[in-house]
Design goal:
The complex is a heterodimer of chains A (about 350) and B (about 260).
Chain A: H1 2-10, H2 12-28, H3 30-33, H4 36-54, H5 57-63, H6 69-97, H7 107-110, E1 112-114, H8 115-140, H9 165-170, H10 176-197, H11 213-236, H12 264-272, H13 281-284, H14 286-297, H15 299-306, H16 308-317, H17 319-345, E2 352-353, E3 358-359
Antiparallel strand pairs in A: 2-3
Helix pairs in contact in A: 2-11, 10-17, 15-16, 16-17
Chain B: H1 3-12, H2 14-19, H3 28-37, E1 47-49, H4 50-53, H5 55-58, H6 61-80, H7 90-100, H8 106-130, H9 139-161, H10 166-177, E2 196-197, E3 200-201, H11 209-214, H12 221-252
Antiparallel strand pairs in B: 2-3
Classes of the chains: A mainly alpha (about 350), B mainly alpha (about 260).
The complex binds protoporphyrin IX containing FE (HEM).
Protoporphyrin IX containing FE (HEM) binds near residues 124 and 138 of chain B.
């Protein structure tokens, strides 16, 4: 019963909005989350839940694959460090509200200390701990080796290495030219651009949330929800044919998921206007083209005029930075938008031009 | 003779003095000399702000990434003694490695270490973002870091193919398949059909970016050789150079960031 419920809830249709909401709550109440008490309670609740999860044979058979161990480690580290950042940020923000300086700026912390022995011994300890960890990991888990390469027989599902599974998961919503080329390229370009876009001088050299809310929220949403969460979906919840499987579900090759996704042009010309698809490609896709272009071209100037946040942003950043920032943010949010359109309207492509390999 | 006496005797030998040019690091002068006189330790400054030394600030993730990179270089070098990058030998060499090499955990350390490096580099970037360390004067070093992040992923990705098993070729088939959708440069990418002169197709599966990457139209022996060279020589060299730049800039930009 409970397992079936969890299987249902894990479906991205539900778990993605839940994650987004949890993310929002975490930032909204970051001072509550960033306390030791919260951490202890979370651990106390999580341990029995994890044990209960592991007791399930289907879940266990996915978890125990040696190549999935790194993802567990990633999750533990991301969880811990996200909390740890909140903890540090909450301490500093409370101090700043009280008119004090951040902890990193206190005279005691600014004091210079000798690298030998202070830093050198910390490093030595870290190296030894890391070596020990790798050796133990290597002894417990043998590096897997499957059958010899066979170009004529593809395993199902064929998955990319785990760190690219967020991108592979995007293939559900975007064609390869977007999910595999344009969006990854924009992630890299956008990351490099970060220091040149973010002109806020505050929060340099200490942990804080309050002083850099916008920058941190945008970055964390991309990192925690769009990157880490999608990797989890790709690794644990996608089985044969990239079909969704709940964590307690057996990967049954015959699970059939009916999909009747439909393009925007079909919705408009066939369903709404009842005229059938026009022959001319551009006319056929005109609504999608206008919609996509206006998403990128109309929203930024509109927001800069009509919304309070937009007016402030363009004033703070200047025109060039503002438009680059908006472009990057809109490209990032295009993924959740495409997801929601898929779930609500079974929408396949907004612009469907397979004749030109140009589907959006 | 007491333990201290022996230690003093050793310190007084010509051999010891020829290696360590300073006395024990128990006073200011010698502590500076230890760090400045050692080629490895002199990556560090001699003194640092206290906040920059603390685990709670740096999370030690950049340092661990570097250490794992070194560990991967050493274990990878050992693996190269046993491994031949051809379709005929590659898979069998890996089997031999696990069955005939005594105490063989080098492949395990190399594989799990590669995963670990991807994780630590991500967390390092997460930390750098959270302390706002990309802000002036460190903008450029953040950019160097992003390139290092991409190269770390590519190192891991190229290594994934080398065991030449089903997991390897199909993961690389999926991953490299994206390249054929590159706009204008991949045969199934938008814009490729524009590059036609009459019946002559300029961007086809015989010359697009995917073909250049794999040395063929599918993941076969030429791809194995290309990935091997990228993995063992080319990318590690570039990463090595960029890490040098990265560390140099950490120092030149004023050391670990701290409140202005
Ligand atoms: C192979 C990958 C990398 C290695 C070996 C590496 C190593 C390091 C080390 C040892 C430090 C000193 C402080 C610390 O440990 O945190 C550092 C600092 C720094 N790293 Fe990296 N890093 C890598 C990738 C990256 C990435 C992906 C980024 C960001 C996108 C980045 C940006 C920075 C910046 C801005 C600093 C200065 C931090 C400060 O002053 O507080 N690095 N790096």
């Amino acid at each position: 019963m409970l397992r079936e419920l969890i299987n249902k809830l894990s479906d991205p249709i539900i778990s993605f909005p839940m994650m987004t909401f949890a993310f929002y709550l975490m930032l909204k109440h970051y001072k509550t989350v960033g306390t030791k008490k919260f951490a202890y309670w979370t651990i106390a609740i999580l341990i029995p839940v994890i044990v209960w999860f592991l007791a399930d044979p289907n879940f266990f058979s996915i978890i125990k694959t040696p190549d999935n161990i790194p993802i567990i480690i990633l999750l533990v580290l991301v969880g811990f460090f996200t909390w740890f950042w909140l903890y540090k940020a909450a301490l500093n923000d409370t101090r700043i509200e009280e008119g004090l300086c951040p902890i990193e700026a206190t005279p005691e912390e600014r004091e210079k200390v000798w690298v030998w022995p202070n830093l050198v011994y910390t490093e030595l300890f870290a190296i030894i701990a890391c070596t020990a960890f790798l050796i133990v990991w290597a002894i417990i888990f043998k590096a897997p080796l499957e059958e010899s390469a066979n170009p004529t027989w593809a395993p199902n599902p064929a998955k990319a290495p785990w760190y690219f599974l967020g991108l592979q998961e995007m293939l559900v919503y975007f064609d390869p030219w977007m999910a595999g080329v344009v969006l990854p390229g924009l992630i890299v370009a956008g990351l490099i651009a970060v220091p040149y876009i973010d002109t806020n001088p505050k929060g340099n050299g200490y942990f804080t949330f309050k002083e850099r809310k916008m920058a941190i929220s945008a970055f964390l949403f991309g990192w925690l929800v769009l990157w880490v969460y999608l990797i989890i979906v790709g690794v644990f919840l996608r089985g044969p044919n990239w079909t969704f499987y709940g964590p307690f579900e057996y990967w049954d090759f015959h699970k059939v998921v009916a999909s009747f996704n439909i393009n925007l042009s079909e919705i408009i010309w066939i369903k709404m206007l009842g005229t059938g698809l026009p022959k001319n490609l551009v006319v056929r896709e005109i609504f999608g083209i206008i919609l996509s272009l206006s998403y990128i071209i109309v929203i930024p100037p509109w927001a800069a005029k009509a919304t309070k946040a937009g007016r402030k942003l363009i004033q703070d950043l200047g025109v060039t930075r503002y438009y680059i920032f908006m472009f990057l943010v809109l490209m990032m949010t295009s993924l959740p938008i495409k997801m929601i359109l898929r779930w609500l309207f079974s929408l396949k492509y907004i612009v469907a031009l397979p004749e030109w390999e140009l589907n959006l | 003779m007491s333990g201290k006496g022996i230690a003093q005797k050793v310190r007084d030998t010509q051999v010891w003095k020829s290696i360590f040019r300073h006395g024990p690091p128990d006073n200011a002068r010698n502590r500076a000399a230890v760090v400045a006189g050692n080629v490895f330790l002199h990556l560090h400054p001699i003194k640092l702000k206290k906040s920059g030394v603390q685990l709670g600030y740096t999370w030690c993730m950049g340092g661990l990434t570097f250490f794992i990179f070194l560990a991967l270089t050493v274990t990878g070098l050992l693996l190269m003694f046993y491994y031949r990058p051809t379709a005929e030998y590659a898979y069998n060499d890996i089997i031999a490695l696990r069955e005939h090499v005594p105490l063989g955990i080098m492949r395990e350390i190399h594989r799990w270490g590669a995963h670990a490096m991807v994780i630590t580099v991500w967390i390092h970037m997460f930390r750098v973002f959270m302390t706002g360390s990309y802000k002036p004067p460190r903008e450029f070093n953040w950019g160097v870091g992003v390139i290092l992040l991409v190269l770390t992923l590519l190192l891991s990705f190229t290594g994934y193919l080398l065991p030449w098993d089903q997991l390897a070729i199909w993961a690389i088939t999926v991953g490299s398949g994206m390249a054929k959708a590159t706009p204008f440069m991949g045969n199934a990418g938008p814009g490729a059909m524009l590059a036609r002169i009459g019946d002559f197709v300029m961007v086809s599966d015989k010359n697009d970016v995917r073909f250049q990457l794999l040395g063929g139209r599918f993941v076969g022996e030429p791809a194995l050789l290309r990935f091997y060279i990228l993995h063992c020589v080319f990318i590690p060299l570039v990463v090595g150079v960029l890490i040098a730049v990265h560390f140099w800039r950490v120092r030149k930009d004023g050391g670990i960031s701290a409140p202005l």
